[in-house]
Design a protein that fits this description.
Structural class: mainly beta
Number of helices: 3
Radius of gyration: 29 Å
Number of strands: 44
Largest sheet: 24 strands, antiparallel, barrel
Distance between the termini: 43 Å
Shape: globular
């Protein structure tokens, strides 16, 4: 497709009324990508798209014909939520290298979605940019007009630009999806199948410098405690170092309005992993995710050190987080395909207070408090070099480094990662080699380890497969800035899949997968895992989703992690199991829809079985109002797990019953496409009753322990409630008002009554309340320059 420059001022009004639109070349002849891949679009859905440009931006105009415009789906949502609505999108790849696309969508309700597509990560909608769009509904369909500034794109500094280009259309009522350049579903890489945009020449892009100052205030209230207030202010900076590289920095960050974590009662030997909800660490981080070395929740997370306490000491105020002082990231890609990413963050020194109580000879007591460092001033750094070539392959070098002030642990992890594809995207070879070096405090030895894997597969056609292997050495450790649950093992795995590429008489889509996995302890050669999984996923002709499958471990395996022994030298035997699941999700186009997911797990031990049930009805009252209820029940009968070490240093396990209830309500009311009210409430209750205690033997078996009698029952009640109002009052500028209350209650003694536990969780005596108001304002440096320029008075 060829585009022309315009000197007209283009009004983004959804009308395409300027003369430049009349002269622009038309892209038409779309092809269906789902469900009937490759089928030409019908004349009833004719789609005409035009592109023009000036020195400031690229403009996209689309006319989307619809025989019955009343059938256009137009649910209003918050940004980046596609929901039940028709959509139009444009995909730009400024380097035309087949590997990264900037994707911009707008719904028929005028809601924007934007994201970055990469072969490795697919679509990532955590990335947000500033651009304009307008939609109008007509008697022949709907019209879209978009203005995408060059600041929102990445491209080389050359006089003549050649970009990868594609257009997308979704007709929601039939769930049909179309693109201008066909995305062949026999090929997994979408960006290599883009068309070409030519004609953009000699553009002088403006300075990409943006300031986003913010101010926020908080009111904290809890019964029986003094109410407190807090005021914060800070600044985000985005600067285009050149046309390809961008600097993002946050000074005095504030993440007080981020989504709450879905905390659970964790009985495993490993920490619970949480999603990243802070925008700075989610936006445009595809480069930093190379190699899987970054778990950004480490930055500003819980302190690393827990002080040892004497018998007469107690810890008063161990903090849950450390304060992030500032953070920055630089990322971009040269015209030769070299991607460079640098992320740096600094957290402040964090202390806790230890109180010592001294008994005096006269019977009185003396209190002595002292502060102890639980996390020193720390610097976190990530460096990524990613070279792309042949439009579908890359080799990356990644380094993560954590440096802590003083005599505290430092860590350094490096990785070489490769993703190689044949020219026709038929076969793939990917793998990595990771090396970790941990510098412990002086009294301990430094530790070095590695993790390497290799995977080969067929990635094109109806039948696909892959085979691979992984080896993780005994002392590999990337936990300072990444997350790892286990080491000292090697694994072999393979996958075989089949899919239909076009609808048949019964299904719009049908896929089946067979997965085989085996894992062995490096030190003993003992088997740690052996599983077989068979899964089916289908879409019916009425666009209902159905999935079902089974998995099994046909032999006894050995778990070196659950006993939690020093050096993970002890192990417990894990019996054979057989698991079944079923999943159904009805078409969300209907006002009422339902998700359903029962599961059953049979373990080869007497009376040991697990089963669960998930159900989620949803009702769309209108294009503005939606309510979703989610209920999840899971029960484990005669489950076996670690509970403690006794005074003789024996490892104590228990036969136990565990029951978990999770109730969630999600709601949204969209006043318009820039103003929404959102509700999220979650009640989580999980309890464990230990029936019999057991002692772990050296051969991994368990024998009854009749002497251990400590109460290790557990009851966790968690309540979270968020009600928020959001208004995007100007491009990139937002007002957010949030009311939040929550409680978290843990006990050993409890009643097995959901009503009593729920009432305790929402009791005014236990609830903490937060009311916060945040204002963020987006300032474009170029707009400031324009205001400073004197007017020409004649």
């Amino acid at each position: 497709m060829h585009t022309n420059i315009t000197t007209e001022k283009i009004a983004i009004d959804g009308k395409l009324s300027e003369n430049s639109w009349e002269k622009a070349e038309i892209a038409t002849n779309f092809f269906m990508i789902f469900p009937d891949n490759g089928k030409e679009i019908s004349q009833d859905l004719k789609t005409d798209v035009k592109i023009i440009y000036d020195q400031e931006a690229v403009y996209v105009g689309a006319i989307l014909y619809e025989k019955d415009p009343s059938g256009i789906k137009r649910e209003i949502t918050k940004r980046d939520d596609f929901a039940t609505a028709d959509h139009f999108g444009v995909f730009f790849n400024g380097y035309n290298d087949g590997q990264q696309e900037f994707r911009f969508f707008v719904s028929a309700a005028g809601v924007q979605q934007d994201g970055i597509y990469t072969t490795a990560n697919g679509e990532d909608f955590s990335w947000d940019s500033i651009w304009q769009s307008k939609v109008t509904i007509t008697d022949y369909g709907w019209v879209v007009e978009m203005k995408i500034p060059y600041a929102a794109l990445r491209f080389p500094k050359t006089n003549k630009q050649t970009w990868g280009l594609n257009f997308y259309r979704e007709v929601r009522k039939t769930r049909q999806q179309y693109t201008w350049s066909l995305l062949d579903n026999k090929i997994s890489n979408e960006s290599t199948q883009a068309g070409i945009l030519e004609g953009i020449e000699n553009i002088e892009t403006p300075t990409r410098l943006f300031f986003i100052p913010y101010t926020s205030s908080y009111l904290f209230v809890k019964k029986g405690e003094k109410s407190t207030g807090e005021f914060k202010g800070g600044l985000d900076i985005k600067y285009g170092i050149n046309d390809a590289f961008t600097l993002d920095a946050i000074l005095i960050p504030d993440f007080g309005q981020t989504k709450f974590d879905n905390v659970e009662l964790n009985l495993s030997a490993f920490e619970q992993q949480f999603s990243e909800n802070r925008p700075f660490f989610t936006e445009g981080t595809d480069l930093f995710n190379k190699g899987g070395l970054l778990y950004s929740r480490r930055i500003g997370g819980a302190p690393t050190y827990y002080p040892e306490l004497a018998s007469d000491e107690e810890l008063l105020n161990y903090p849950n987080t450390t304060n992030l002082l500032n953070a920055l990231k630089v990322s971009g890609r040269t015209k030769n395909g070299l991607g460079i990413g640098i992320l740096n963050a600094v957290t402040e020194k964090t202390e806790a207070t230890i109180r010592k109580t001294i008994d005096n000879p006269d019977g009185s007591q003396t209190i002595q408090d002292r502060d102890v460092v639980v996390e020193p001033l720390s610097n976190y750094n990530v460096l990524v070099l990613d070279q792309r070539f042949n439009q579908n392959s890359s080799v990356s070098l990644i380094n993560t480094n954590v440096t802590r002030n003083g005599e505290f642990r430092d860590a350094n992890v490096s990785a070489l990662v490769w993703d190689l594809n044949t020219k026709e995207n038929t076969f793939n070879l990917n793998g990595n080699f990771k090396y970790s070096y941990v510098n412990e405090i002086p009294s301990l030895d430094d530790r070095k380890g590695f993790d390497t894997s290799l995977d080969f597969g067929k990635t094109k056609g109806k039948y696909r497969f892959n085979v691979g292997a992984q080896y993780v050495s005994n002392e590999y450790d990337n936990n300072d800035l990444g997350i790892i649950f286990q080491n000292h093992y090697h694994a072999l795995f393979s996958n075989l899949s089949y899919r239909i590429l076009n609808p048949n008489m019964n299904f719009n889509t049908f896929q089946t997968y067979l997965n085989l996995y085996s894992e062995f302890d490096n030190r003993t050669g003992m088997i740690q895992a052996a599983s077989f999984n068979l899964n089916f996923d289908t879409t019916s002709k009425k666009n209902h989703y159905t999935g079902f499958g089974a998995s099994t471990s046909p032999i006894v395996t050995n778990d070196f992690y659950e006993p939690r022994s020093s050096g993970e030298t002890k192990f417990v035997k894990i019996p054979e199991y057989l698991n079944f699941y079923y999943f159904f999700s009805s078409n969300y186009n209907n006002k009422f829809a339902l998700d359903l997911n029962p599961s059953f797990n049979f373990i080869n031990e007497r009376e040991r079985v697990s089963y669960g049930f998930y159900i989620s009805p949803r009702y769309r009252f209108s294009d503005k109002l939606l309510l979703i209820y989610k209920f999840n029940f899971y029960r484990q009968n005669n489950n076996t797990g670690w509970v403690a070490f006794d005074d003789a240093d024996n490892t104590i396990f228990a036969r136990r019953n565990r029951i978990t209830y999770t109730n969630t309500i999600v709601g949204k009311y969209s006043i318009n496409n820039v103003m929404t009210i959102n509700l999220q409430a979650r009640y989580y209750w999980s309890y464990v009753v230990n029936k019999r205690f057991l002692t772990l033997q050296d051969d991994g078996s368990l024998v009854d322990n009749f002497s251990y009698s400590t109460n290790k029952n557990q009851n966790l009640n968690i309540w979270n409630f968020d009600l928020s109002y959001s208004w995007w009052f100007a491009p990139g500028s937002q007002v957010s008002l949030l009311y939040r209350n929550n409680s978290s209650l843990f006990s050993r003694e409890f009643e097995h009554s959901i009503s009593k536990n729920f009432n305790e969780a929402i009791s005014p005596d236990n609830l903490s309340h937060v009311l916060s108001l945040s204002v963020r304002y987006y300032i474009d440096y170029n707009s400031l320059k324009k205001k400073k320029q004197p007017s020409n008075l004649n």
